[in-house]
Amino acid sequence: MTDGQELGEAAHRQLRFESIEDCVAEVNRIRDAAARETLRTSGNWTPGQNLSHVAAWINYAYDGFPITGPPWLVRWILRWRLPSILRQGMPRGVRIPGVDAGTVGMEDTSAEEACGRLSDALARLESDEEASFDSPAFGKMSDEDRVRLNLRHAELHLGFLVYAP
Asked: Of 1-5, 59-63, 108-112, 117-121, which range is least confident?
């Protein structure tokens, strides 16, 4: 495994998932690369942290979020920016104020285990299970927007994972 200092910023891949199936296919390619020992990261987190973080945030909508929402003005701004985020993707380097490490859910586990977690979370996202909890940042969203937001989040984090074809 290498870190972002060795691979550099240019190694971040621009991904676009139009469907959950697109994301599942990428998770399978990442799992294969991990098995071949060709998986690297271009960021500050391990592959397992990136993958488990995306899985955790999908599951929070069903199981409950471990953090509270930001102040109302920040929520209002985020809600206003949501359409742009759903179209263009999430920016890199955003940290949640007041949260240790800037976010939650990035358990450092093996890439193989984290791929399994993310695959399970994506299956849950695709199922008919109703999300019980609104986003602390964006509030209530349609199921379509919630899927799109999770796909944009996956694009961001899986883009830091680099592998040989």
From this structure: 1-5
By residue range, what is the domain housing residue 41? 4-162
Distance separating alpha carbons of residues 46 and 102, to the nearest angstrom: 16
> For residue 92, which amino acid is it?
R
Number of domains into which the chain is organized: 1
Residue 125 · residue 152 · CB < 8 Å: no
Q: Which two tokens stand for residue 38?
A: 């060709």
pTM, rounded to two decimals = 0.90
